[in-house]
Design brief:
3-stranded antiparallel β-sheet, homodimer, DNA-binding, 9 helices
Chain lengths: 189, 189
DNA sequence: CTTCTAATTAGATATTCATTTAATTAGTTA
DNA sequence: TAACTAATTAAATGAATATCTAATTAGAAG
């Protein structure tokens, strides 16, 4: 996933020692011992940090005798640094098509404060919205009609319509004026 | 220090949840509960992440009734994201004038592999170089002349000159052919 | 004044991670 | 082959940190 690469990149730069390594390598390649000396840390520490930077694709290396020179890949650095500016919600929110559709419907019909802006007229979208609302109710709990109305009003003023939809689409059932959730496999049927 | 700000910024983006928050806020402000819902985490988790993003200067907020809306500061985001591309060694290596001078002298006279390219003729610079070399010796330990020579040779072939400079500038003292470090307060006197 | 709601703080837990020393590997040179 | 050097790996330790539940605060509305 695109997202993980971004996180990895920023994690790689989220450390003083690594930023210093990076700044040093900007002036040209250096080998491990030189880095360790300049930064006042031990060689294994350099190995550790180098491997993180390498994993993030920011450096490459060339061997000369026993000495390995580390090079900064400035192009990759630039690419990654700018990636965060271009990222969009798609890259970051549920991936599969179904979930994605669900997400965009919810995004369209619910305001940022969680209230329902409008009841969808397309049945498919309406079901998505109903499911979202019904998820705030407790399975197995018995609700008086008044309770249900109050609950629904937190989302939308037309509680009567939504309450009827709950029943008609089998999200809930009613017995003697008491409402209760159906098991999820019946929802929307 | 400039460096710490950079680290803080990248640390702030080095986490999946925070990158997601950021991507969501790109489409406009959201409040805590909305973020928690969309991301599937609990409100305290949002508070936690928001405060990191806020500390990094990436978001600001506006209150409406009980609800606090978080806004992405896209300008700051851009500035910080690009800062890593512009950073130089100065920002990342010893800061105060004295240390800085030290650093550039060492950089000029030592090769990347740690060897001394040339013994400085200016006394001030020579002292910096001597101090650097002498720091590899163990305080309190007694060295035979041969050991000292061997040690110095790792830096420069003219070990005799450097060994004499050690004594003349009080980095070490000699007693019955045995060498030992002086305490640092005597160095260079 | 009481109740409600959104946000935050406190405290706990489990995980990640930077650093070190000691041991090992890989490659060079004699 | 043996001796050396630079780098890496292994293992240990201590600090930072992502998340949660439970308790608390701050503001709004009845």
């Amino acid at each position: 996933m695109q997202l993980d690469r971004l996180v990895q990149f920023h994690k790689a730069l989220g450390d003083v020692t690594r930023i210093r390594i990076l700044a040093l390598l900007k002036n040209g390649p250096l080998h491990g011992q030189a880095l360790a000396g300049k930064l006042g840390v031990k060689p294994p520490t350099i190995t550790h940090h180098i491997s993180k930077l390498r994993d993030a694709g920011l450096i490459y290396e060339r061997r000369d005798k026993n000495t390995i020179y580390f090079y900064l890949d400035e192009k990759k650095l630039k690419q990654n640094a700018e990636a965060i500016l271009k990222i969009g919600v798609e890259a970051v929110m549920p991936v599969n098509k179904k979930e994605n559709e669900k997400y965009s419907v919810l995004n369209n019909f619910f305001a940022a404060d969680g209230t329902l802006k409008q009841i969808p007229s397309m049945r498919k979208k309406r079901l998505i919205v109903l499911e979202h609302i019904v998820k705030g109710l407790i399975p197995g709990k018995q609700y008086a009609e008044k309770e249900i109305n109050e609950y629904i009003k937190r989302f939308h003023e037309d509680y009567a319509t939504i309450r009827r939809e709950f029943i008609a689409n089998h999200y809930m059932f009613r017995e003697n004026g008491i409402y209760e959730l159906n098991p999820p496999e019946l929802w929307g049927k």
